[in-house]
Structures are given as C-alpha cells and as structure tokens.
C-alpha cells in the first residue's frame, strides 16, 4: 500500500500554447479510493500519463511514500492504468492476458497458474482461463483488464473512465465489483471520470479538476450538498443562484455581479401554485416525468429555473403560471471563485 503526493504539477504539451495542468496538487491516502472528476479535456488522462511516466511534467513532483518517482522507469513505478477500452491481446487467452506482466517479471509457471486463478476468483469469473477476448462481453473484458492490472500487486491503481462504454446495468455491477475488490485488496486507487454520479459512487473523497487545478476536495456528500465556489456548484448540478439578500436578483442581473452569492440545489426548490416566504413568479416551460421525481423548467425574468420535486408531485402543463419557492434553510453561500 502506498500514500501518494502530487505536488504542484505544471504541464504544457510541446505543440500547445495553453497549459493543461497549471498547479495540480493532490494527496491520496494509503489504501484510499479517491475519485478525480473533471469535464472532458480538463487534463485527467494527462495527469495519469504523468504518474505512469508516459509523459513528464514541466515542474512539480510526484511522490510515493515520500519519495519522488519522476526518475524511476515507467515500468518500475508500480502504477498501473486501466482504460475505457480493455486493450486485451486478441490472440492470447484470458489466462495469458492476465499473466503477461508476471511472465515479463520471470515468475514461475506454478505461481502464475495460482495467481491467475486467484485473480479470476477475485473478479467473479472463475474458470474462464481458456477463453479469448473476442468471446467476452464488454463487462467481462473490463473485469479481465482489471485482473491484469492487479495481478502484479501494484502500489497504485489508476482507472481512466473504465466504465464509460458499458450499458447502465453492467456499469452498476462493475461499480460494485470495483468497490468490493478495492476494499478487499486495500490498494490505493484513483478513479477518473467526467460523470458526477459515478465519481460519487466510486470514492471516499472526491477531487474536482477545473482549469488545470483541483478546485474542490471533500467527501462526495459534502461536495454535493455544500460546494464552496460558483464553479464547483455548477459542476455539482446547481444552476440557481440568489443575491446577498437571499432572494431572486434584479431582472437580467448577472450572477457574477452579486456581492454575496447563495446557491440552492434543484431538489430543494419548490414549484407550486402558492407563493411562500421566498418566492418568485414564473411560467412553466417544461415539466418532465423522470420516474422518482419530476423535473421542472420555469421561465423567470428571462432565465430558466430548474427544479426537481420527488414523486408524488404535480405535473404542470406548459404555460402554467406558478411560484418558484426557495426555502431559506436550503440556501448556502458560495464564493465567486
Ligand atoms: P481528459 O482526459 O480530461 O479528457 P486530456 O488529458 O486527455 O483530458 O487532454 C487535456 C488537453 O490536452 C486536451 O486539450 C487535449 O487535446 C490535450 N492533449 C492531450 N494529449 C496531448 C498530446 N499528446 N499532445 C498535445 N495535446 C494533448
Ligand atoms: Mg481522458
């Protein structure tokens, strides 16, 4: 097990003018699974390439248990990477794919057989040693890729959007499997994704990467309910901001110009026929049934307020006049940056 310290990384690709990482710092505790959440092209894969040694940072340091790894050969760092695609060797069977890394290390064939079996039990696919990658489903292929990554007992497991190409139900199964396996092995893990729901499901702490640096780091439930900045709140699905008096701002007001800024989550906004203590009037532009909840879009002062109310909730027709209520107990202050 390994504690990881990433210290003020800067990275600009030679042929690019803008930097990808500007001041990236993050510590991962020994045995922890942390999620790195960021929009696409925010530099997530670049960070993983810097850790595995495929790329070098312009400045900054990466340390495992307090020692820099930057001058260690990529294949000796003990950081393994798993991708969205499994990249299994198509002509090798499952056992040969999993044991590839061990063979390179010169491990004996008895040990290899036992290790392959241990890995297949771990990923919940015992007995598939002889199958070829072409005979595996997408989910099975990703399980085998995970086994291949873990068989060398890595210091750090890096998962780069590993579930992005899978169907929802397969994806949910694999989320659970990865959680179980990570807990059982205690391997320090970073799960990288652009998907908020997945980042929350796959982490004890979650880091948000925007504009080349970590702008928020906390437990998923804290970040979800109380993001501290405007940018973090927007990424957490908040789209309604109120002014310093905790009321709807002047018409056409720019959120950025408010001296103090309050945010409210969409599921805490009430869309009703009656006004309450902190309301604004609007017109329903859309009302979508989502199963567990109803999603409302209400036109107010030339912008759209998005709200969600749990079922049973009223389905309002397009064009209905309603009140949008912002209960004060759910408002929280955010900083402009
Ligand atoms: P993410 O994984 O978050 O989608 P990436 O790290 O892949 O982001 O990419 C971040 C930015 O760096 C993008 O703008 C991408 O075009 C650029 N980039 C990635 N790899 C290279 C490369 N080898 N050379 C030049 N630019 C690159
Ligand atoms: Mg990527």
Q: In this structure, how is the largest beta sheet organized? A: 6 strands, mixed
State the end-to-end CA separation: 35 Å
Spatial extent as radius of gyration: 24 Å
CATH topology of the largest domain: Rossmann fold
Q: For the largest beta sheet, what order do the strands appear in spatially?
A: 6-7-8-3-9-10
Number-wise, the strands total 18
Mean of pLDDT = 94
Question: What is the SS-derived class?
Answer: alpha+beta
- Annotated CATH homologous superfamily of the largest domain: P-loop containing nucleotide triphosphate hydrolases
Helix content: 10-25%
Which compounds are bound in this model? Answer: adenosine-5'-diphosphate, magnesium ion
Q: Any idea how many domains?
A: 2
CATH class group of the largest domain: Alpha Beta
Q: What is the overall silhouette?
A: globular
CATH architectural label of the largest domain: 3-Layer(aba) Sandwich
Q: Which segments are poorly predicted (pLDDT under 50) over 5 or more consecutive residues?
A: none
Specify the number of helices: 8
- Strand percentage lies at 25-35%
Write the element-wise H/E pattern from the N-terminal end onward: EEEHEEEHHHEHEHEEHHEEEEEEEE
